[in-house]
């Protein structure tokens, strides 16, 4: 059982990094996160190793030994990105959490611009700040697949988010943990945030080319799984009616 911390630093943010076989990128990324975000906030970095088969776990373990701001968790077998994010959120201690992909394509400096849109010390109307990648570096096939997925998602979910798959997000930890868990949850955070009664802000972010490793997905698997998930989330949102209650309760404690 994971014990949740009761105390929250008044100017803190927890950064969650899900990784799988990212031995060539994770050390550089961690140094970036600690240097760039840590210069402005009390930062906690939760790295969740989702069943890596390379030296990712050992690299992060060594870095965590020398820096108490790094927390390392490990899944015994691959459980996918959304499961890793949920594990990280359960271990996080800040009111707000930031999510960053472990392959180095996200720029940690963008978290600062995203966090500047909200007050990290309290809960307000905004529940999510979502990154929108500019100048995408992905291949043409991934870009086409992404645009088709976004088009279909807008028709069914109307989440007003042009890039729901972007790994950079800053979200209220209690809100994220209130979401029903399912695989690919990370792709539907804007739609769920809206349904739970919170607003989403969008911030343009960098999309850096992957220097090492390769994508864990292909376009065919994305499409097949995405259609099933989309229909499932459409049904789920129609069965969810508790959003306004959450906002009312948060207003009472401010």
Description:
This protein is of the alpha/beta class and 254 residues long. The chain has helices at 26-37, 56-66, 81-91, 109-115, 140-157, 173-178, 189-195, 219-238, 243-253; strands at 12-19, 42-50, 70-75, 96-99, 126-133, 169-172, 199-205. It has a seven-stranded mixed sheet, with helices on both faces. α1 links the parallel β1 and β2 (42-50). α5 (140-157) runs parallel beside α8 (219-238). The longest helix is centred in the C-terminal third of the chain and has 20 residues, at 219-238. The chain starts with 11 loop residues before the first strand and ends with a helix.
What does the overall shape look like?
globular
Contiguous runs where pLDDT drops below 50 for at least 5 residues: 1-9, 247-254
Order of helices and strands: EHEHEHEHEHEHHEHH
The radius of gyration is 17 Å
The residue-averaged pLDDT reads 83
Query: Major beta sheet, specifics?
Result: 7 strands, mixed
Strand content: 15-25%
Summarize the amount of helix as a percent range: 40-55%
Which strand order do you get reading across the main beta sheet? 3-2-1-4-6-5-7
Tell me the distance between the termini: 30 Å
Structural class: alpha/beta
Number of helices: 9
Extended strand count: 7
Which helices and strands occur, and which strands form pairs?
Elements: E1 12-19, H1 26-37, E2 42-50, H2 56-66, E3 70-75, H3 81-91, E4 96-99, H4 109-115, E5 126-133, H5 140-157, E6 169-172, H6 173-178, H7 189-195, E7 199-205, H8 219-238, H9 243-253
Parallel strand pairs: 1-2, 1-4, 2-3, 5-7
Antiparallel strand pairs: 4-6, 5-6
């Amino acid at each position: 059982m994971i014990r949740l911390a009761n105390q929250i630093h008044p100017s803190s943010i927890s950064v969650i990094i899900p990784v799988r076989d990212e031995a060539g990128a994770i050390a550089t990324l961690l140094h970036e996160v600690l240097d760039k975000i840590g210069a402005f906030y009390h930062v906690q970095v939760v790295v969740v190793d989702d069943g890596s088969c390379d030296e990712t776990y050992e690299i992060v373990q060594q870095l965590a030994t020398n820096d108490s701001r790094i927390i390392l968790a490990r899944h015994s077998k691959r459980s996918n990105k959304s499961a890793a994010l949920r594990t990280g959120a359960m271990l996080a201690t800040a009111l707000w959490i930031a999510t960053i992909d472990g392959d180095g394509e996200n720029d940690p400096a963008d978290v600062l611009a995203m966090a500047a849109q909200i007050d990290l010390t309290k809960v307000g109307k905004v529940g999510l700040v979502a990154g929108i990648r500019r100048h995408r570096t992905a291949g043409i096939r991934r870009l086409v697949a992404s645009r088709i997925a976004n088009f279909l998602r807008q028709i069914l979910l109307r989440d007003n988010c042009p890039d729901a798959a972007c790994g950079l997000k800053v979200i209220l930890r209690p809100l994220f943990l209130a979401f029903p868990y399912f695989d690919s949850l990370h792709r539907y955070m804007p739609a769920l945030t809206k349904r739970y009664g919170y607003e989403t802000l969008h911030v343009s972010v960098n999309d850096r080319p992957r220097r090492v490793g390769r994508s864990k997905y292909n376009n065919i698997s994305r499409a097949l799984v995405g259609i099933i998930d989309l229909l499932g989330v459409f049904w789920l949102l129609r069965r969810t009616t508790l959003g306004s209650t959450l906002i009312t309760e948060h207003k009472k404690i401010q």
